[in-house]
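Q: Could you fold this chain for me?
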Amino acid sequence: MVPSNRSSPRRYGRDRGSATLETVILWPAVFLLIFGIVHAGIWFHARNIALTAAQEGARTASMNNGDGGAERAAEFISSAGSDSILSVRTITQSARADDVTVTVSAASTTLIPGWMIDVTQSSTAPIRRWTDP
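A: Sure. Below is the predicted structure, expressed as structure tokens.
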């Protein structure tokens, strides 16, 4: 007696096109996740460059009696080679009696052409002076 395959129905007909449907739904989500992670990394890198430039400017101004901070921040950004990541809009410096603040306002490039995300970082440092006891 030869065994018959009639007891197990063929399932090939019901699965037709499922791989295509899974691909159409899954891949855009995967690409969106990957591009989101890369975009967040670019923004975070631009933010760190702006913060470091502001800290360098505040440190320099604090040692020079409140002068030269904005110039040092601009010099740091240009020497870091971050012109493709960070588009600087303004670098401001404000000094009060005891401290100095340097603020870097820029825009971070993105993966979407023509779209820029604002990045603003500031740093404050005390002005260092010699005082007589």
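A (continued): The two ends are 112 Å apart (CA to CA).
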